[in-house]
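Input:
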Amino acid sequence: MSLKENFKPYGENAFKVRLSIRTALGDNAYAWDTNEEYLFKAMVAFSMRKVPNRETTEISHVLVCNVTQRVSFWFVVTDPLKNHTLPAVEVQTAIRMNRNRINGAFFLNDQTLEFLKIPSTLAPPTDPSVPIWIIIFGVIFCIVIVAVMLLILSGIRQRRRMSKGPTEVDDSEDKCENTITIENGIPCDPLDTKGGHINDAFMTEDERLTPL
Amino acid sequence: MEKARPLWANPLQFVFACISYAVGLGNVWRFPYLCQMYGGGSFLVPYIIMLVVEGMPLLYLELAVGQRMRQGSIGAWRTISPYLGGVGLPVGGRNFGQPLATVSSAQPSRLQPGLASVVVSFFLSTYYNIINAWAFWYLFHSFQDPLPWSVCPLNSNRTGYDEECEKASSTQYFWYRKTLNISPSIQDSGGVQWEQGLCLLLAWLVVYLCILRGTESTGKVVYFTALLPYCVLIIYLVRGLTLHGATNGLAYMFTPKLEQLANPKAWINAATQIFFSLGLGFGSLIAFASYNQPSTDCQKHAIIVSLINSSTSIFASVVTFSIYGFKATFNYESCLNKVILLLTNSFDLEDGFLTASNLEQVKGYLASAFPGKYSEVLPQIRNCSLESELATAVQGTGLSFIVYTEAIKNMAASQLWSVLYFFMLLMLGIGSMLGNTAAILTPLTDSKVISSHLPKEAISGLVCLVNCVIGLVFTMEAGNYWFDIFNDYAATLPLLLIVLVEIVAVCYVFGLRRFESDLKAMTGRTLNWYWKAMWAGVSPLLIISLFVFYLSDYILTGTLQYQAWDASQGQLVTKDYPLYALAIIGLLVASSTMCIPLVALGTFIVRCLKRGDTPPVA
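Output:
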């Protein structure tokens, strides 16, 4: 680091960066060494070059120091003449706009490559134009309505058929035969499934006379 | 002379209808909570004792009454103590084996639990279907990736998450804000939420579809509503037991804490759970049994249904506790990870150096090596405890819609599990709704006046429509508070009174011996001494003691309070009910309880007037 006297690690234009490589990659974690640092400086310089008026930022303008075991370090971007550090706001904007590229270079994400003091823009949730639940609701609603209509209509048709049936047999006696008699609290229909017309207790005409 | 009473196509349909009605949401969300609160494995002891002493006898009594009287609850109880004089005998219900003369000199009706049952069932069906509406809502939302309750929505400038969601959790936020859109207190009613209103409408349409044709359609539907929940529970059992951390939950649940056996609350809650879980006193069981062939062996069915109901509770709690164990372990490990991250960042330790196993050692080392910095960080370090995670006992809608969804969102293929779970809740809820509506409809369709003017489809339709419109109250912003009122007060005390009156009516007014001989003539089996002992002595005493306990509990508690959701803090706060809410609670309890003495008084007056009329005629 060349400009120790102008570069206070905890100055207002410096940013602390924290990486959690082992958390993100597990066994595929790479070790943090000076080459990785070089890549980091390159990415920061790349981000700064996208800012208007800063297209001439070089890798050497990015200074990194206080690397710990964690891995965490501080960095700051100096101007081309190397006599002062660039304002934090510019650096912040630049990093925010290129966050995805920086994350991608290190196989990390916003949680494992943290820039403290630079909040990340969260991805907006994908909202479909029509909420999915209304579609499913509509489908089930229509099915249920159709089923209800079918059942009601078939019930009406059944009732109409039943009321037409007995009127064709226009005996007044038959009207009594259609109702089920109750004997001692038990309906007689279990005795005869056809509707209780025939009382099996009595002999029929044929059997009254003993056959020859 | 009456039209043939519709019958179940086979006895299996009847058993399934009873199971479908009895096995409901209470088995899934109340029993595991009670098990957890009252000593885990040792809660099974009072539970099984109460099942044998209270559940089976009372269930057998209701089924026998329904099968014997062959009418819905109003007609059945009117038959037990028939009217005198001008009112005439009730339709179709003549005591067989007894000539007309003896019947008319029997005691007049002073006890009318039938109408009270219908009133309680009416209240129940009004508020119960909103649970099905919520289940539909969650079911429809389960078809998204990611599940909507697994992530917090972003705040307005997209730099962070919504504030309420941050303070609470994403599942709580989805329940309280997106589903209920709950207001801060019961006074702020807000408007009807149209999304919930639509779901409620759909729920009532589905119920109407199932009850439309009476036992013909109900008999087929109960095959699904009885069996499908078991399929889903078995699938969940297999998945639950293979989840990481499930054994923690199961060990916690089944280690018996024997000292809880001495706690009277454990016994009272066991009795209450058996009582309400079987659905006694609503009139639904009487209605179902009235569609039976008189020769059906209802003793066998009563034992089967009560055993299946209780084993389902235990089975569901095994599933619930494996899910609890998974959730608790997951939260415990997240908590540990947060502490590890905090320490790693504060002391710039190497990433991955701190693990759960060496955490305590390293904490000790850091405390001694860097005492100043450590004491700065110390307040932020939370004490992670698996025990405290497991000990958070939740019941009711909180369990299903908050705790379970939290566990589900962490499972792989969470959409599938979510769909299965809410489908099961729907089946359970609709099965219970069939019983509730049967309790209301059977007396209506039995009554000559109404059924001669309207076909049964229209009666069912009207009942569903009225309930749906009233149910819209529960879709308002303060709706969940009203739901809690109905849930806690509409059914508890009145039911105890109704069932007490039922037992006393059968044993002492109708006569236990008469009932015994009727049953023997009907089914061909003698009544075991055990049932007689239970009906005449033990069960009424048990119910009286429960009743006294609840009454004294309500009186001693003073003003009633409720839990309100505070959006600014992201948690529940306790508030007092306003005066009008207390009045409505009183009205709820009174309206069903008072039916019994009021109708009794009414018939007594009518009888006195009739007796006053007859002398001039003679």
